[in-house]
Amino acid sequence: MSKYWNENTKNLEPYVPGEQPKDKQYIKLNTNENPYPPSAKVIAAIKNAANEDLRLYPDPCCEELRQTIAGYYNLTAEQVFVGNGSDEILAFSFAAFFDPGEAAILFPDITYNFYPVYADLYRLKYKLIPVDNEFTIPVERFFIQNGGIILPNPNAPTAKYLPISRIKEIVEYNCRYSERIVIIDEAYIDFGGESAVELLNDYPNLLVIQTLSKSRSLAGLRIGFALGHKDLIEGLETIKSSINSYTLDRLAIIGAIEAFKDEEYFQEIRRKIITTREYVTKELTAIGFHVIDSRANFIFISHSQIYAGELYQKLREKGVLVRYFNKPRIDNFLRISIGSEGEMGSFLRILKEIL
Predict the structure, then answer these.
(1) Of 243, 262, 281, which residue sits at a domain end?
(2) Do the beta carbons of residue 231 and residue 75 sit within 8 Å?
(3) Per-residue model confidence as pLDDT tens digits over 181-218
């Protein structure tokens, strides 16, 4: 810690991402990456775009990509914002829509760890809404005055999903009574959930944020996007252009466009992951694990006979990385990313050996 840091920086507890080890090869089930490669069409387009034009700045408005996403979701380009990963868009959203000194923003007590980090960074008040013992988000407890609401659906790290009808209740309440924004973070929505995008044209206070890191295998390109009323998108553009006008590079833009065009490959990969998730869930349940119902590309598990922290260490010693959160209420659970069929077969075999 430097004497030149300001007080806010000194007091921040930054987000800690999943381990990216370099000491040896692991079966890597700890960062919710897609186990399958991007579409071959994406790779070909990126290679073709790696040419002399890299000397030029990319389009700061990302017009072609926004048009592509808008067409995919039956929206207009002015309802689409793109950024350098969904985390950046979340940071812009906290800056654009939540006010310091006003009512507290709301999010679940067990959720994506970046939310409190951003709240502290922007000096925002926030209120944690406790989930129940099965990690279900209690919708009714969000029906209070607030400075805005942010929810991941499915939630992380629990994988628990809220039906679209329940999301609509929260958005409706805030539109009618609080007149505040509701942000639905849909990083994992493509693995079995129903997107809140269908509500966008009815609610000007709804912002939906998604990413190409998970279901479209592009974590290495850092591409996220937000969908909402044009006034919300304009707010995000204002924040972006006050920090960095060129958030997406040329290769990321062309890769993202091709990823949306190759619908057949996208559907094939998401079906594979869903099928593997259901198979692994069944196998784990058969050997005594409690598996939280998942609509994501990961599962949240615990076992009555072995503590999660101990199991995490034993798996790591045998070359399998999973995610362990040493925090109240979830310190006896592990989050397991869904890998390929082969990786998950090895994971189950090693797990049974440990047990």
Answers:
(1) 262
(2) no
(3) 999 999 999 999 999 999 999 999 999 999 999 999 99
